[in-house]
Design brief:
Strand content: 15-25%
Distance between the termini: 18 Å
Structural class: alpha/beta
Number of helices: 20
Shape: globular
Helix content: 25-40%
Oligomer: single chain
Largest sheet: 9 strands, mixed
Radius of gyration: 24 Å
Number of strands: 24
């Protein structure tokens, strides 16, 4: 094609193409939203990008997010889009906002508030509600320009409430008529562009008022009819969040969902992690997944490549004293006034000595585990040794850990002060996480971008994975760079049927990152009050992303937005390019 102008030519980079192959020096040419050629490109591009000394990778595909609300009120899917992510999948865990009748809006808001820690006032202010059906919701998402691409599951909780109303919220079994209607709406959703259907069978998932998620006890007849409707539509993956009845009934729970997938030919994906209460339970689940795949049922687990953890601080959703009566009496005060009151020695003594009120939500019950709690460092150390825990430090200092935590919160003031991993860190290292993510039937996920705004910021995991696991780790094995890029791109894309992206090859989507690996750095968590109604969110910045390209257009340079918003709603699974 000598003499023919491309739209963009990326020159002289180390191409890590997403296949797992070693880096290869070369050029990448783009026409429109598609990769046109790789190798040595003679023709010029309308835009030339010098990638000497940089990695050239596919854009990252994050398949477990909750941007259902943010995609309505905001065009930038921060923080994910600041970490090289060019495609996200939302609607996970059975929660979302469509379909929804006007009288059920508050119920879905309360559910999302409880399950995903998004303040109700933020959703009440930010959601336009110019939809009722799920296809109309997709149209509303599509109507707003975005920085990156979005795919969506049909969420079971919203579907069940739409069909059953209050009967769904109180745990009633669906009638045959209910099931038939859910199946019909599922068929419509697949045809409108859902990539699949998500549900939750987790005791952990509760509304802000303490009610169990409406899908908790949905039986095999209901799940089977929904999956059969997906089969009729010819597409759709099952995403299932389960804690196997708090890991007391792993065999029966897995058998139920396996049976649904087997009868309907649906591929299935589900989360996996090392739980601290039963640190070896993940081995049993992986064994069941292996058995299913051996029998021809495609089951993929999703795992986070670091400790799944809470960030705790005085202006975040929670901290170790959130449920102490004397603190609860002042928690409504502005931060500066609250800190001033907390400096009073008498109040400090009372708060430290008090027994907290038992909180409603499961995550809130974690905040006093001082043996696994660490002071925030800059940058945040995601693999701290147990001798740096608050319990260990307090013992060395001859104080109670509550006193140490109290002083750290006051010393930090605004922002995150404490880090509390509650999964993948039972033994004080990331060895279990490494073993999990290396498994043949495990892909990356569980970053939860768009959710847990005031307590979790795991959507930054792509940067952590690239910097820590391939370059900085000193406490054990590292991972090879090509394997990490493959895990962030083609593996996740294939797992959810998006086969048109995740590789740098002719015919694939021109979603590309240019990365200075040597200076790739994950910043400390920050608090911003930039959500609707002044709502708060945690975010993390990254340095080292020289450019991020989405659909052939540069959307970020050195972490700063260019103003372009070329992201698209992806409707349904996407085939691989025929000439690739």
């Amino acid at each position: 094609m000598s003499g023919t102008a491309y739209d963009i030519v990326i020159r002289g980079g180390a191409i890590v193409d997403g296949s797992g192959a070693p880096p290869v020096a070369g050029d990448v040419a783009i026409i429109g939203d598609t990769i046109a050629a790789i190798g040595t490109i003679a023709a010029r591009g309308r835009e030339e990008i010098d990638a000497a000394g940089l990695l050239v990778t596919p854009g990252f595909v994050d398949i477990h997010t909750h941007y259902d609300g943010q995609s309505i009120w905001e065009s930038r899917l921060n923080p994910s889009s600041g970490h090289g992510v060019t495609t996200v999948v939302m609607g996970n865990c059975g929660v979302g906002f469509a379909p929804c009748r006007p009288e059920d809006r508050e119920r879905l808001i309360e559910l999302m508030e409880g399950v995903e820690d998004i303040p109700g006032v933020v959703m009440a202010e930010g959601l336009s509600w110019d939809w009722e059906s799920y296809p109309q919701f997709l149209d509303a998402v599509d109507a707003r320009p975005h920085d990156i691409n979005i795919a969506s599951y049909l969420p079971h909780a919203a579907l069940r409430v739409f069909v059953m109303g209050k009967r769904a919220s109180v745990g009633e079994a669906a009638t045959p008529a209910d099931i038939a209607q859910m199946a019909e709406l599922t068929r419509d959703a697949m045809q409108a562009g859902a990539i699949g259907f998500s549900t939750s069978r987790s005791l952990f998932h509760k509304s802000s008022s303490g009610e169990s998620i409406p899908t908790l006890e949905a039986d095999s007849a209901e799940l089977g009819a929904i999956a059969s409707a997906m089969q009729d539509a010819g597409s759709g993956i099952l995403q299932i969040a389960s804690d196997y009845k708090n890991f007391t009934d792993v065999d029966n729970e897995f058998a139920l969902i396996r049976d649904v997938a087997e009868r309907t030919g649906r591929e299935m994906t589900l989360p996996i992690a090392q739980t601290h209460g039963d640190p070896e339970s993940w081995r049993k689940i992986l064994s069941l997944i292996e058995d299913a795949n051996r029998d021809g049922i495609t089951v993929t687990a999703q795992a986070l490549p670091r400790g799944i953890g809470l960030l705790l601080g005085l202006d975040l959703s929670m901290h170790p004293f959130s449920f102490c009566p004397s603190y609860m009496a002042i928690h409504h005060l502005p931060l500066a006034e609250r800190i001033e009151r907390m400096r009073d020695p008498a109040l400090k003594a009372r708060i430290i000595a008090e027994t907290p009120v038992k909180p409603t939500l499961p995550l809130q019950q974690q905040v006093r585990r001082f043996a696994g709690m660490f002071e925030i460092t800059e940058p945040l150390d995601y693999e701290p040794s147990l001798d740096r825990s608050l319990a260990a430090r307090a013992e060395r200092d001859g104080v109670v850990p509550e006193a140490l935590a109290y002083d750290m919160l006051l010393g930090r003031g605004a922002g995150a002060a404490l880090f509390l991993p509650f999964a993948n860190y039972a033994h004080g290292n990331l060895d279990a996480a490494l073993e999990i993510i290396r498994h043949d039937h495990v892909v990356l996920g569980l970053g939860d971008g768009g959710a847990h705004y005031g307590v979790i910021c795991d959507a930054s995991y792509p940067t952590f994975l690239l910097a820590y696991w391939t370059r900085d780790r000193t406490r054990g094995e590292r991972l090879a760079l090509p394997d990490v890029v493959k895990a962030l791109t083609s593996e996740t894309a294939r797992a959810v049927g998006l086969r048109d992206r995740g590789l740098i090859a002719p015919g694939y989507r021109a979603d590309i990152n240019l990365i200075d690996h040597a200076r790739l750095t994950l910043g400390a968590p920050e608090v911003a009050f930039d959500l609707p109604a002044g709502g708060r969110r945690l975010t993390q910045r990254a340095s080292g992303y020289v450019a991020t390209i989405v659909n052939g257009i540069v959307v970020y340079r050195e972490g700063e937005p260019t103003g372009a918003l070329p992201g698209r709603l992806i409707r349904g699974p996407q085939p691989a390019p025929v000439h690739a």
